[in-house]
């Protein structure tokens, strides 16, 4: 399998074709954007960390039966993933109120929700990914009722698993974003988890100090994003304990063996 032409470039990733029509390569960039592209920067090493963290989470999810697009990590910045037709919806899962919901509904930051809340946003940068209802999804035929039913079931399992996984390493999973795609074969279509799960797409707070270990460090200008993402990787067992968090040493990640069983 060889790498082919660029098919799509997003804010944090690039998708390349391969010589296998069913597989594509997902490349993790160092670009960081926030507030609908109004704030931009390049943070050296971010793509490497997200590649490893996302590989770790998606391969663990696969082991508990959550079908997803990951085939294998290729190198420091690239993964081979199954080609899917992305459903144009961002599925936001919240355990604790933070970010946009606190402003939209005037809820205090850090309020624990009685049960996980799923929100839907239309994936459209020009419109700023607006919040939509489930009825909008059916009215505009962005997804079928049966697909959303299956996705919701998967989301609750993913959330349960991830809350537990992070709790085990003293991190609170506040919220996160998921994307799903349609895997097509033999005229059939199946929804599977796609995109990435990383500190770019989750809010992760240290259980003891509430320190932010996610992209809010960039959004809020808190700095030290690489040490925070490295800390997440280290706690998940992806980075060796003694590995220095400096950008130069990010290259050491490539020599750390995958924890995948
Ligand atoms: P909020 O709605 O508070 O902005 O985001 C809720 C959660 O979803 C946060 O963990 C945030 O990182 C994630 N999220 C929402 N939209 C996006 C997006 O367009 N890109 C990324 N990387 N994460 C998002």
Features:
five-stranded antiparallel beta sheet, binds guanosine-5'-monophosphate, 33% strand, single chain, 261 residues, D-amino Acid Aminotransferase, Chain A, domain 1, globular, disordered C terminus, alpha+beta, 6 helices, seven-stranded antiparallel beta sheet
Can you summarize this structure?
By secondary structure, this protein is of the alpha+beta class. It is built from six helices and 14 strands.
What is the end-to-end distance?
A: 24 Å
CATH class of the domain at 87-206, named Alpha Beta
Q: Please report the number of helical segments.
A: 6
Q: What class do helices, strands and sheet pairing give?
A: alpha+beta
According to DSSP, the number of beta strands is 14
CATH topology of the domain at 87-206: D-amino Acid Aminotransferase, Chain A, domain 1
Biggest sheet statistics: 7 strands, antiparallel
Give the CA-based shape.
globular
CATH architectural group of the domain at 87-206? 2-Layer Sandwich
Give the full name of the CATH homologous superfamily of the domain at 87-206. Answer: ATP-grasp fold, B domain
Strand content: 25-35%
Rounded mean pLDDT score: 93
Q: Please trace the helix and strand order, writing H or E for each element.
A: EEEEEHEEEEHEEHHEEEHH
Tell me the helix content.
25-40%
Which ligands does the model contain, each kind named once?
Answer: guanosine-5'-monophosphate
């Amino acid at each position: 399998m060889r790498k082919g032409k660029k098919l799509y470039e997003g804010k944090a990733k690039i998708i390349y074709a391969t010589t296998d029509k069913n597989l594509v390569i997902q490349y993790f960039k160092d670009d960081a954007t926030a507030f609908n592209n109004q704030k931009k920067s390049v943070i050296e090493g971010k793509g490497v960390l997200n590649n490893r963290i996302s590989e770790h989470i998606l391969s663990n999810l696969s082991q508990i039966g959550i079908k997803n697009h990951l085939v294998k990590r290729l190198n420091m910045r690239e993964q081979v993933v199954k080609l899917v037709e992305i459903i144009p919806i961002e599925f936001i899962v919240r355990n604790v109120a933070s970010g946009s919901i606190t402003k939209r509904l005037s809820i205090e930051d850090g309020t624990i929700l009685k049960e996980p809340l799923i929100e839907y946003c239309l994936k459209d940068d020009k419109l700023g990914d607006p919040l939509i209802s489930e009825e909008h999804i059916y009215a505009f035929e962005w997804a079928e009722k049966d697909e959303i039913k299956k996705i919701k079931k998967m989301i609750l399992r993913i959330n349960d698993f991830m809350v537990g996984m992070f709790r085990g390493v003293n991190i609170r999973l506040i919220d996160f974003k998921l994307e799903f795609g349609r895997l097509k074969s033999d005229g059939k279509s199946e929804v599977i988890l796609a995109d990435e799960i990383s500190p770019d797409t989750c809010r992760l707070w240290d259980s003891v100090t509430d320190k932010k270990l996610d992209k809010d460090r960039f959004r809020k200008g808190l700095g030290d994003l690489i040490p925070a993402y490295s800390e997440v990787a280290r706690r998940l067992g992806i980075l060796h304990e003694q590995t220095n968090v400096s950008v130069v040493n990010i290259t050491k990640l490539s020599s750390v063996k995958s924890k995948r069983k």
